[in-house]
Amino acid sequence: MVDPRMVIIEERLKETSNVIAVSSGKGGVGKSLIASTLALTLAKKGYKVGLFDLDFTSPSTHIILGVEGVRPREEKGIIPPQVHGLKYMSIIYYSGEHALPLRGAGVSNALIELLAITRWGTLDFLVVDMPPGISDATLDIIRLVKRIKFLVVTTPSQLAFETVRKLASLLTELEIPIIGVIENMKRKDSLFIQQRVEGKGITFWGEIPFDNKIEEAIGNVNGLLETVFARKLEETVSKYLTL
Amino acid sequence: MHEWALAEAVISTASEIAEKEGIKEVTEVKIKVGELQQIELDILEFALSQLKTAKFKNARFSIEIVKAQLKCRVCSHQWIFMGENLDENTAEAIHFVPEIAHTYIKCPKCGSPDFEILQGRGIWLESIKGAK
After folding, report:
1. Is the ipTM value over 0.95, yes or no?
2. Mutate to test the interface with A, among B11, B12, B97, B116 (most CBs of A within 10 A)
3. Which of A98, A92, A72 is nearest to A83 (CA)?
4. What is the value of pTM for the model shown?
5. For the CA atoms of A206, A219, A138, A207, what is the dihedral angle to 10 degrees?
6. Which of A69, A185, A199, B19 is the most exposed, having the fewest neighbouring CB atoms within 10 Å of its CB?
7. What is the CA radius of gyration of chain B?
8. Which positions in chain A touch B5 (Cβ < 8 Å)?
9. For A122-153, how does the pLDDT look when each residue is reduced to its tens digit (9 = 90+)?
């Protein structure tokens, strides 16, 4: 017995130049905000961009982007709708406002299904908002998307960095490229994270200051792009991420 | 139309297996389709007929329907899910991503959404036969 979906996944992504997983060892470090703002920033620069929310049990990018009233189109698979210039895909099109309690095998199956049926078309960048940690979704995206690269998010906290250190070690061991580490929610000067990241031979993309205004910009894309958070991320993206 | 994506996956996978096994002309492809996903068989069959390559010119696509058997992880109750009591939107959501069942279906005995799909989830390629 063979699962036919596995073979088609690479085919679905063949016109996508870069697949970037925004990941972290811990929750609450700002992954979804960085993934969403990264995707919007790249789209603003004129790139063709997709955003795929892979955090099936706790999706949040649709709240950040203020996604409402759109659905994927069915055409020999499913075609994600355009949202603020992005091709946007999330489980929320199907689970709606309801809780989706999934164990590991369910996460894997849903992920494989969506990768197999979603037709992204031509993209310069597909940004993937990952769930935290190194369990099913992370292992599956590494297994199924051979060209995946990781952008890792931490906070200045030693606790967050400890989990990021383990994520980075795993990715390095598996020879999965880490394009950079971002230190988010920085409150005071410290080289603690930068030194440790660079000490591992990984590019430190820089720090993003804690932004009190960010909460007010949730759901308002124009407001979000005007925050200190977004402007700082744009500077970093311009420096490190080009085709 | 999601059946087209699944049919494309079946043809690609069967081609890959035929290539590996040195099969030049495929005569039979056996597919299992789970009831949970409520795949429309006539669309799937039509998509397979349209997408098949020269290697599958004389191939027979045999499709077996597998009942959706669920087992509650909390109380161990097992039941066959027949798609009853689902509105159109819910059925459509499960059609695209069967795991959405965990949002809408509960164990009929204890009400838990924590169940295992023992069989009948999606689409599987069981075997292919052909001439080498």
Report:
1. no
2. B97
3. A72
4. 0.95
5. 10
6. A69
7. 17
8. 8, 76-78, 116-117, 119
9. 999 999 999 999 999 999 999 999 999 999 99
